[in-house]
Structure formats: structure tokens, C-alpha cells
Amino acid sequence: MRHVRLYVNTRQDLLLRTRCVKTAMLLPRLKRRRWKTLILQVFATLLLLLLLASSLRWKDRDVDDTCPVDPPNLTGPVNVNLQEAPVLGDVSMDHLDVTFGGYWRPPNCTARHKVAVLVPYRDRREHLHIFLNHIHPILKRQLLDYGVYVIEQYGDEPMFWKGLLYNVGFTEVLKNRSYDCFVFHDVDLLLEDDRNKYSCSSSPRHLSVAIDKFNYTLPYKQLFGGVTLLSASHYQTLNGYSNLYCGWGGADDDMYLRLFHKKLKITRPDKTVARYKMMRHDQTKLNPYRFSLLKTSQDRYGHDGLNNLHDMDYQVVSVHQYHLYTHIAVFVATRKIQATNRLVTNSTD
Ligand code: NGS
């Protein structure tokens, strides 16, 4: 009995022990297998998610969300209110969707173009407020991705250096943002029809074709002033504006000559939509050197413009982002500019 029990005991024991050993040996293997399955499952899920995400992205790409060529909210003729300058705070309240710095982009589609509007400015606060109140709704209706820049001349220099300010504005703006094209805009011109589009064009464009001051007719065929549009690369090709024109007249004619020499054809929208009202103001000082400068335009344009800005005596005093525009304050020194004038007139007269 004892022996049997011993035997039984031993056998049971053995069986038990073998099972234990087997189970003991099996357990880590099972665990390992379970881990492997788990890891495989996680990998498979991740792969699935990745595939799903990329297919969604492709789907997104297939859906063209580019804004329409003909924005649907254009009104055509625009009411131009010249009677009273709006309070800028009120204008701000009407444009809470404009980002500080004067930036806006369509919320529901991708704009076709990124456009910077450059406005050279001095001493015309009322005009500026009227201009800002007028331009923002139009640019929004045109579904542009845009920024408005006011380049103000500081200092006691009596003459206004529009070409220089445009060049400084262009250079400063591109330091922080990229733009496809630039609108060069006199502050006193208000567009009367929002179908005159400020969107980029493959050729330089003269936008202010019909101004009330000229009875809505083009005063002369070569006019390229008021409101114009150039791609960033064309502006660079042309070496920007001449830096040498001060006071009223000639800088735009010089730009026309640059375009002519570079064989860049000017296009114009139809005069039925390219209509503007000009805000009245005192005549700014005439540029006495404008005709002599125009005579030598062809010889100068390669080295008078964007590429010799560093030789001009100006300083960017500040760049400040107000709600409806970015303000670039440019100090223009009288002394050096007068010296430049003397140099130019001596060599040309
Ligand atoms: C020409 C000026 C242009 C000026 C245009 C229209 O005579 O600079 O009148 O001026 N050219 C010269 O003086 C050489 S406007 O009345 O629109 O300010 O843009």
C-alpha cells in the first residue's frame, strides 16, 4: 500500500510536476505570443489610420477650394462718400475680421492672389481715413488675400518723395511677408466700381483709367500713375521707381519709360469699371527737375531705384501694425536729398 501510494504519489507528483513545468514553460511563451499579437494589432491600427488620413488629404486636394475668378459678392458701382471723414474707431468696428496690420484673407476659399496695397502718405489724415473705410470692403468682396501698407514720410523735407517711399515700402514689406503683386495707390483716389479688380495680372496694369478730375477719360496714353499694379518680379525687373523725383509730377512717367525700355506691355481695364473719384486737396509742390530727369531716365534706370536705396538718406523710423494698416514711418533727410538734387540738375541741365 505504502509502495502503491508511494507510486501513485510519485506518479501523480510527476504528472503534476510535468504539467506545472509545461505550464510554467508555456506561460511566458503564451505571454510573448499575446504581446506579439498586441503589437501587431497596434501596428495594423496605426497603418490603417495613416492610410485613412492620407486618403482624406488627397480627397481635400481633389476638392478645389480656390476662390472664383468672378467673386459673387461684387456690387458693381460703389457708393463714394466724400462728405465726411469717418472716425477710424468706427471703421475698425466694421472690420473686426481684419487682422492687426491691415491683413485679411477669404475665410471660405483660398485666394488666387496675395496682394499688398502700398499707399505713400503725408499730412492727409482725413483722406487716409476715408481711403481705409473705402478700400477694405472692396478688397474683401474681391476675395483677395491682402495687406494694406501706409508709408509715411517723416522729417522737415518740404518735398514729397513718392518714388523713394514706394521703393522703401516694397523692400520693407517683403522682409516679413511674401506677396505675388503690389498695388501702388494714391491716397486721394477712391474706386467707384468694385469690378475693377486688384488681383494680380501677368502684365503691368494701370487701374485708374477714368478719374472724375479728367472727366473720366485718360488724359494721355502713356499715363501710368494714380493706381497701378505690378507683380513683385516685374517691380524688381524694373528696379522699382526712380528715387530722384520729389514733389509733384514725373515719377510715374519715369516708370512708364522703364516699362517701355523693358518692353513690358501695359494693360488697362475697361474705363466703365476703372472709375475713380479724386479727393480735393491743395496742389503739392511741383518738381522743378521733372523734365530734366525724364530726359535721362533711360540712362539711369539700371542704377537708380531699388538697387541704390542704400545710398539714399532715409531711415525707417518704425513699422507699426495698426488695426487697419501697417504703418511704415520713413525719415527723409533734407540735406542729403538736396545734395542729390544739385547733383542731378548739374549733370542734366
Ligand atoms: C502729368 C505729370 C504726371 C501726373 C499726370 C496726372 O503732367 O506725373 O500729369 O496728374 N507729369 C509731369 O509732370 C511730367 S494728376 O493730375 O493725376 O495728379 O501723374
From TrEMBL:
One of its GO terms (cellular component) is Golgi apparatus. Its EC number is 2.4.1.-. Residues 205-282 form the Galactosyltransferase C-terminal domain. Belongs to the glycosyltransferase 7 family. Its main location: membrane. Pfam families: Glyco_transf_7C, Glyco_transf_7N. Catalyses the transfer of galactose onto proteins or lipids. Keywords: Glycoprotein, Glycosyltransferase, Membrane, Signal-anchor, Transferase, Transmembrane, Transmembrane helix. It is found in: Membrane. It is a single-pass type II membrane protein. This is Beta-1,4-galactosyltransferase. GO terms for molecular function: galactosyltransferase activity. CDD domains: b4GalT (cd00899). Signal peptide: none annotated. It comes from the Eukaryota. Residues 67-201 form the Galactosyltransferase N-terminal domain. InterPro entries: Galactosyl_T (IPR003859), Galactosyl_T_C (IPR027791), Galactosyl_T_N (IPR027995), Nucleotide-diphossugar_trans (IPR029044). One of its GO terms (biological process) is carbohydrate metabolic process. PANTHER family: BETA-1,4-GALACTOSYLTRANSFERASE, BETA-1,4-N-ACETYLGALACTOSAMINYLTRANSFERASE. It comes from Branchiostoma floridae (Florida lancelet). Pathway: Protein modification; protein glycosylation.
